[in-house]
Amino acid sequence: MFAAHTGNAKGWGSVIPGVLYAVFGIIGFEAAAPLGEEARDPKRTVPRAVVLSCLAIGIFYLVCYYAATVYWGPHHMASFLSFNSDDPWSGLASRVWGLGFIAVVIALVNSGIAGSNASSTATTRVGYAMGRVGLLPRLFTAVNEKYRTPTWAVHVQAVFALAYLVILGFALHGPLNALVLQGTISTILIVAIYILTCVSCIVYYLRAQRRHFNVLLHLLIPLVGALALIPVLLAAFGVDFAHLGITGLTYPADLAPLICLAWMVLGLILLGYFMIRDRSRIAETRRVFTEQTPPTAR
């Protein structure tokens, strides 16, 4: 699906860069965290949502790819993506089920709507929370009197998303190239966030929650997670560590690492600005997602 040159056709030189796009298929489960303020008993329900969503999508992928491998044959999978004019899943369903391809189309439409709603909800919730602590303008905290939704956060997110997809689609001459670039950007950033989350878990329990520190849960598991993802992040930047035959991504995916670096540099600049002008805003980030009553509607 993604235009990535992953080095040698077999071996770890292909597997490690391929993991970058495997991660793209599962990202989104962490979007349950921003909804903690709106959930009942979030300390119980949010972790359940995160874990169960990962298990559910993992089982779904296993079943689908098992079916595709059995039908197509493990030695012919290289040509699977080009089957049925680059629409292999609908073609496979049509051959096996007849009219079953309709179920695939319905599933795709349903997934697209659900994914869009989930992304919009998480994004607007983050915008609202950042406005509350002063990292974004306070108007982001405005809440609709009837629907109790963050009005400005919703409007800004909608306008930005529409403008972004139209501009990116035209600039890259089609939606597929736009998906390749955006998917690679999202995955690189998420992989970096996952690594930092693993490290922060270790540091947090060693420094702030030492009496609750568990060697397995708070050291070994996050350490293994971080170490497993570091090679994937390096591969995204074309670093051929251990001489595995890894080469850089091809256009337009090769633009993603540069965009991610620019985004991170911008974040460091903003951090420096707040460190100089108002350090309290940085300290307030600990309240970005808290269990408290949202501000009154206005």
Report on this model:
The chain is mainly α. It has a domain at 12-86 and 175-287. 65% of the residues lie in helices and 0% in strands. It has ten helices and no strands. It has helices at 12-24, 42-72, 83-86, 88-97, 101-132, 151-171, 175-207, 215-236, 255-277, 279-283. Helix 1 (12-24) crosses helix 7 (175-207) and helix 1 (12-24) crosses helix 8 (215-236).
Summarize the structure.
This protein is mainly α and 298 residues long.
- The low-confidence runs, each spanning 5 or more residues with pLDDT under 50, are 1-8, 294-298
Write the element-wise H/E pattern from the N-terminal end onward. HHHHHHHHHH
Kindly estimate the percentage of residues that lie in beta strands according to DSSP.
under 5%
Cα end-to-end separation: 45 Å
Q: Classify the secondary structure makeup into a structural class.
A: mainly alpha
Mean pLDDT: 84
How many individual helices? Answer: 10
Outline: globular
| Helix content estimate | 55-70%
Radius of gyration, CA atoms, in whole angstroms:
22 Å
- Major sheet attributes: none
The number of distinct β-strands equals 0
